[in-house]
Amino acid sequence: MREHQPSARETALRVLVSCRTNNAWADAALKAQLCRGGLSAADAALCSRIVYGVIQNQLLLDFYIGAYCSQRPDHLQPPLLEILRIGAYQILFLDKVPDSAAVNTSVELAKLSKRGQAASLVNAVLRKLAQNKNCLPPIPERDEARALSIRYSHPKWLTKRLLALLGREEAEAFMAVGNGVAPMTIQVNPLKISAEELAEELTAAGVTAVPHAWVPGCLELSGTGDLTALPAFQAGKFLVQDPAARLVSLAAGIQPGQRILDVCAAPGGKSFSAAFAMRDAGSVLACDLHENKLKRIQEGAARLGLTCIRTAAADGRRQVPDWVESFDTVLVDAPCSGLGIIRKKPDARYKRLDDLFALPVIQAAILDNAAAYVRSGGVLVYSTCTILPEENQQVTDAFLAEHPVFCREPFRLPEPVGETQGQLTLWPQRHDTDGFYICRMRRRP
Prior knowledge:
Blueprint: H1 8-22, H2 26-35, H3 41-56, H4 58-68, H5 80-93, H6 99-113, H7 118-131, H8 144-152, H9 156-166, H10 168-178, E1 184-188, H11 195-204, E2 208-211, E3 218-222, H12 231-234, E4 238-240, H13 243-252, E5 259-262, H14 269-277, E6 283-288, H15 291-304, E7 309-313, E8 327-333, H16 353-371, E9 374-384, H17 393-402, E10 406-408, E11 412-413, E12 418-419, E13 423-426, H18 428-431, E14 436-443
Parallel strand pairs: 5-6, 5-8, 6-7, 8-9
Antiparallel strand pairs: 1-3, 1-4, 2-3, 9-14, 10-14, 11-12, 13-14
Helix pairs in contact: 1-2, 1-3, 3-5, 4-5, 5-6, 5-7, 6-7, 8-9, 9-10, 13-14, 16-17
């Protein structure tokens, strides 16, 4: 008997249920399901769009589901709520999917779940939603934070924090960008090719490649298909990396011949960028707590033709005596909430607050330990892919208060940033990059 091949929607449902019941990250769960095969390229694309679309719009979908459902959405057990979200997302956001197809395929998913009256409930709720999609109930505006939270599917605590940091107009712009699609950005490997030459090569391969608006050595791509299948990728001519991460090596002022330590290196992007800046002359020690992640760094360095990179398994919070005061530059890309990369990891916004509150303690411990590895007169760079001051300025402020031998040191980046006073928060709605924090500190001679 031929084995049942799951559809795009069945696969999307499996991913979303895994995210809800196992606290899995969507990108990892989706990759695991797609790697099992069975989906055509078109179905895999539809599956991915449904997964990310549902997560990006989860609170808004629940608001509208709740308007037509006799039960509160948060009282519905898996996989029923996920099935309703999949159907509602298609009805409200996917113009090319007929409403009837969105309803019928969702009813079929409910039947497969074998949960009593689930199919009839799904049918009733989604039909009402489809019938009323041009006159949906308004979102209550009395509470500004709650209204924005529902409209952009950002938790209310985060919406309040953004309003306090940015004000209404820019907070709304940040959330809108967070629900969009991040551009595919690459950093050119200057040891093998120039940005202009790579753009020409990619264009000849049918890929649209344009220079990033202001970060040198970066191209934005579209129409790529499978990036890893491109001859230019296989030849190590570029690295997939957001421009914000590329700016770390610029802020650090890395030069050829230096000794660099990347404390939290996996998957290796900042180590590779540092090696580019050094023209592969010097040494980069890329560390991570997990041995299995180091293999990816080694493979990436080999593909890019970098010989100055070596790896070591190390806990960023535990001192290695042989490394003390041995490095010209130490990079600390600390584990963080990831709230600056919501458009790439949309489920970051839903992680538990308790987990987020624990992060500054971990970040401070790693930074404190890494500082010991900086030689006299050397540079320490702290970075995160979040926009919360609790994980950024407040961590470096506390560090500097406890370590007077270090001080913030101004650095210059290309316009529109220009000169900084030693620290910078990048915002996607302002800078066309990920949300990111960079702080450069000098150890006094």
